[in-house]
Design goal:
heterodimer; A: 249 residues; mainly alpha; B: 13 helices
Chain lengths: 249, 308
């Protein structure tokens, strides 16, 4: 059950941290409609995170709740990929981060909806509906900005280049994956990687963006190692429950 | 010519008196158009600037449920801003112009958002008191004479009543919680009580624009009538969960209504005039977001042009 717990928490953490980052952008959008869209995406992701955390708490069966898992876990027990915790440097970075994650989540949930674990399958099927729309939206932004003005193209390409170092980590697997793949619960991420690369190549081509090659690739989140940003995210997010441990909100 | 205008004005007032809504293409006096445009754009700006004090706590919302509710609520406010800008645009002024007026300080928004949100209970107080005061006003505005404004209000009121309930729920939870939580809740009420009473505007005797607005039925009830309705509804709600309004003169009358102490109008006019704790911060934030987004908006326009 430890493997299933860890796997479910990973899924939750990706959505929780990305949803949190998007929520930070509320009231900072380039225009009102886009502000609303970003909050919408954030809400979808927070909803997914909550469902996965509820399930993780149930699987763990040690009396912790979804909120305990979100608000009382230290950095080292967070397993989100480092891409999700990268800051909202500008609108291009927000959309590039989103596009990489949306493409990943789209293929992941498309596969996980057939997981032998019925709860993971059900949450994935529901999430897939949301993520399908997210992917359409972020793909359109890549194309729009890639083919907009010289400034937007430069910013979009820079965002893609800056964030590229966090993309290999999406497909890393460890003993948790190995064990659950054999039970039909988890998915072989090597398969997802092929689909993801095809999608990225297709959209980059449509957006006139150059596919980055080589360079450093970050690793560590499978073991709870992160970039320096996660600590600050959690310091803010967990402030009240940690400062007032007996309070109920 | 002037005879013609007189006739049009008479017909216009007849429509108003017969509760017929005024629609964008209908003839209307310039004063009516200006009043409605000013009021709707001010209302839209208030929704949008109001995102900031609540947005201040999204990243620190203390539970997954609280975070989702707060985010959904702020998103609703943004949506209200959108309806209202659209309704205001029906009278021929563009959203870009409204934003320009806001940034230049020519257009106002509700002064309540010029106060800081300092503890989590402020999310309760804003929902309960600020949205609560707004609802009293907006329920009345559902019957406003300008059609697009009235229809926007009907939609907005449905969401606002949910906002008020979620705010009161936060306050009730805090009051049922630890001593620190109770202190936070009382502190939030102390800070937001008077500014929320000021949201209804000056006393009827000092309200310069009220008489025309009432005649044209843009406003349906006076500032003091609406304020009283809010007070009589809210004080018992406070007492029910163990909170005390910060007014030593507040007293229950034999008829079930409440007498309250004097409002500090000097503070009100100071904040309206730009000298409140967060006036500069709120406006700077909005201007920065707008400036930072310029290249995105330009890219959208360039892309759309290239597609055609």
């Amino acid at each position: 059950m430890k493997n299933l717990f860890k796997y479910t928490v990973r899924l939750a953490d990706n959505s929780l941290i990305l949803g949190h980052r998007l929520a930070e952008n509320c009231s900072w959008g380039p225009y009102l409609e886009e502000d609303i869209s970003v909050t919408n995406t954030s809400l979808d992701l927070l909803g997914q995170a909550e469902e996965f955390l509820i399930y993780a708490a149930e699987v763990e069966n040690e009396g912790r709740t979804a909120d305990d898992l979100a608000y009382k876990r230290p950095e080292i027990e967070y397993y989100n990929v480092q891409l999700t915790e990268q800051p909202n440097d500008d609108f291009a970075h927000i959309q590039a981060r989103q596009f990489f994650m949306d493409a990943f989540n789209f293929y992941l949930y498309s596969a996980l909806k057939n997981s032998s674990d019925s709860t993971i399958a059900a949450i994935s099927a529901k999430s897939l509906k949301e993520v399908t729309y997210h992917l359409r939206r972020s793909s359109e932004w890549l194309i729009r900005l890639g083919k907009g003005t010289p400034e937007s193209k430069e910013r979009m390409q820079k965002a893609v280049n800056d964030l590229w170092q966090f993309t290999s980590e999406l497909f890393e697997m460890d003993e948790v994956d190995e064990a659950l793949i054999s039970e039909g619960i988890a998915i072989d991420l090597k398969e997802i990687q092929k689909l993801w690369k095809n999608k990225i190549t297709e959209i980059f081509k449509m957006a006139d963006l150059t596919y980055p090659e080589g360079g450093y690739q970050a690793t560590g989140s499978r073991k709870g190692y992160h970039t320096e940003y996660l600590g600050f995210i959690l310091a803010e997010m967990q402030y009240l429950p940690r400062a007032y441990p007996t309070a109920k909100w | 010519m002037s005879e013609n205008i007189e006739k049009l004005e008479k017909q216009f007032q007849e429509k108003i008196d017969n509760e017929v809504k005024i629609e964008p293409r209908d003839w209307m006096p310039d004063g009516y158009r200006q009043h409605v445009v000013r009021q709707m754009s001010q209302h839209a700006h208030s929704e949008v600037i109001g995102m900031q004090p609540e947005g201040n706590w999204i990243t620190r919302a203390p539970s997954l449920r609280a975070k989702k509710i707060l985010l959904a609520k702020i998103q609703d406010e943004a949506g209200h801003g959108l309806y209202l800008y659209s309704a205001a645009e029906t009278l021929g002024t563009s959203r870009d112009t409204f934003l320009q007026w806001l940034h230049e300080g020519k257009a106002k928004y509700s002064s309540i958002f010029n106060y800081p949100s300092l503890n989590w209970a402020d999310m309760g107080a804003i929902g309960w008191l600020v949205d609560g005061a707004a609802i009293v006003n907006q329920v009345s505005l559902q019957k406003t004479s300008y059609g697009p404004y009235s229809r926007a209000m009907v939609r907005i009121c449905k969401e606002e009543s949910f906002h008020q309930r979620q705010g009161y729920e936060i306050m009730a939870k805090m009051m049922a919680g630890t001593k620190e939580q109770q202190q936070m809740a009382q502190d939030a009420l102390n800070r937001f009580w008077w500014p929320s009473l000021m949201m209804f505007g000056p006393h009827d005797s000092d309200s310069t624009r009220s008489s025309k607005a009432l005649k044209w039925k843009i406003k349906r009830e006076t500032n003091d009538t609406l304020r009283k309705r809010f007070i009589d509804k809210t004080i018992p709600q406070a007492e029910f969960i163990g909170l005390k309004v910060p007014d030593p003169d507040a007293m229950l009358q034999p008829d079930g209504s409440y007498k309250t102490g004097a409002i500090d109008w000097e503070e009100f006019w100071n904040v309206v005039g730009g000298n409140g704790p967060c006036n500069k911060q709120r406006l700077d934030h909005h201007i920065k977001a707008h400036k930072d987004g310029k290249w995105v908006r330009e890219a959208c326009l360039a892309f759309a042009k290239n597609q055609n």
